[in-house]
Amino acid sequence: MLTLLKIRNLALVDELVWELGPGLVGVTGETGAGKSVIVGALKLVLGERADKSLIRTGEDTCTVEAVFELRDASEINAVLAEGGLEPCEDGSLIVRRVIGQSANRQFVNDSPVTLNLLKRLGEHLVDLHGPHDHQSLLSTERQLSMLDAYAGCDGALDAYRSTWREWRDKENELEDLRQAESASTQELDLLRHQVGEIDAAQLKPEEEDEIADRYRRASNSTRLVELSGAAASALGADEGGVLSHLVDVQRLVRDLEKLDPSIRERTQGLENAVMELQELERSLADYSEDLDIDPAEAKRLEERVNLFETLKRKYGGDLAAVLGHRDRAAARLDAVENRGERLEQLAAEAARLREATDKAGLALTAKRKKAAPKLSKEIAGQLKDLGFKQSSFEVQVLSNKEPAASGLEGIEFLFGPNPGEPLQPLRQIASSGEISRVMLAVKSALAEQDATPLMVFDEIDANVGGEIARAVGKKMAALGMRHQVVAITHFPQVAALAARHYVVEKEVAGGRTRSRLYPVGGENRISELVRMLGGGGEQARAMAASLLNDAT
C-alpha cells in the first residue's frame, strides 16, 4: 500500500507529510480547498507529464515523494529489471518527482529513471478514477483483460499467444515468398552475378591479412634488400664491422682473465653477445635472400589485393561482410528459383500452426464463455446495490474473422440501465454518473483478481443521490478489505464509512494562502460530517453521529 506521501511546494501546498493507513481512506474538504492537489501529486507519481506552472509561487522547484510497501514485488521487480535497476529486496519502493523551472527529474529508490519507466511502474501501483477517467473501462481490449483475469485465463492465454506468434511468423514468411514470384529477370541476373563473382574469388576471410603482408613485402622488396644487406654488412666480421671489433675485445678480455681470473664474472656475457650478433648477421642475410621475389608472383599478389578491395567496395567493409552478402544473395536466389517446393513446405507448416492456433484458441474460448455469464451476473448484482435496481448487464463474446493476438474472439460490455430499453455498449452511455457506478461495480466484481495495491476514486459519487452515495461508499469500503482505497468525496455518507478520515483545508498565514491536510476523529469528525450535510444544529449532529454508528 501507499504508506507515505510527501508534497512540497506543489500549487497551494507548501509542505505536506501524509501517512496513510490500510482500508478505505476518506478525504473531504470544501470546494477549492486543495483536494485536487492530492490527485495531482498521485498523477505525478504515476508518470504524468508536468510543467513549471505546478510550482508554488516564489519557489524554484516542487517535489512529490511516495513510499509504497509491496506485499508481492514480482511485477514491479520485472519492470525495474528491464530498466536496469536493482529489485526491491525489502518490498519498499520510493518514487520521487522533482519539477524545476528548467528541467524535471524522476527517481525510483534514489536512481534516476525515464518518465516512460515511471509510467509503467505506475500501472502496477495505482488505479486512479475520476468523474471522467473511464477510458480504460470503455476499451474493449481492457474489458477482455478483465474477463481473462476473472476467468483465470493466464496459462491458456500464454499458450495461445505463443502458438499464434509462430503461426503469424510462418504466414509472413509465406507471404514474402509469394511476393518473390514477382522477382524480375534483372533481379535474378543480378543475384546470379553477385553469387558467381564472389564464388569465383574463392575468398577465405583469414587470408586477407596474409596477402596484404606478402604484397607489402613484394612492393618494397628492393629497398628491403638494401636495408637488410647494409645491416648485415655493418655487423660483419670484415674490417670495420661490429664483429671484427668484438674479436679485438675478446682478445683483450682473455688477457685480463689470465692475469685476474676473478674478472670472469664480469665478462662472461661477452661470449653470448658475440654469438647473438653472429646469429643476427646470418638471419639478416637469409632474409635478404628470401626477398628475391619473382615479378610474376608480385603481380599476382597485387591483382589479389585489388580484387579484395573491389569486392569490399561492392559488398562490405571486409571479406567476412562480402561472404555474408554472398550467403544472403544465394538464399534469395534459392528462394526465388525453388519457390514452388518451398511454397508447398511453408504452406503445410502454416496450416499445421493454424490448426494448433485454433486448438489453443478454442481452449481459451471455452474458459471465456464459461466465465462471461458468471461475470455478467456478478456485475449485475453489484449494480443493483448501486441503485440500478432493474438494470441489465451482459458480457458479450464476439467471434473474430481471423485469430488475433488476444484470441479467437473479442468481447463487449453491454449495459441497459432502464428496463425495456436495449442493452448498449458502455462507450455509448453518456452519463458520467452511470459510468462511474458501472466502473465501481466492475471493480467490486474483480476485487480478488485485481492486483493493483492502491485505488483512488476522485469524486466518482458526483451526480448521485444520498442513498446511492451511501451504496457507493459501502462498495468502496468493501474494496478496502482487499485493497487500499482513497476516496475524495463531497458526500458524508461515503466519508462516514472510511476507516480513516482526512480533511483538506485552505488557510492564510503570513499573507500567503496554503492548503493543509489533517486527520479528524471523534467530535471533529462529526463536525466535518455536519459541514458536509449542510450545517445545522443538533439534528444535523445526530444525523452525522448516526452515519458513523451505522458504519461501525
TrEMBL record:
It comes from the Bacteria. Residues 263-290, 326-356 form a coiled coil. InterPro entries: DNA_recomb/repair_RecN (IPR004604), P-loop_NTPase (IPR027417), RecF/RecN/SMC_N (IPR003395). Residues 14-506 form the RecF/RecN/SMC N-terminal domain. CDD domains: ABC_RecN (cd03241). Keywords: ATP-binding, Coiled coil, DNA damage, DNA repair, Nucleotide-binding. Belongs to the RecN family. May be involved in recombinational repair of damaged DNA. PANTHER family: DNA REPAIR PROTEIN RECN (PTHR11059). This is DNA repair protein RecN. The lineage of its organism: Bacteria, Pseudomonadati, Verrucomicrobiota, Verrucomicrobiia, Verrucomicrobiales.
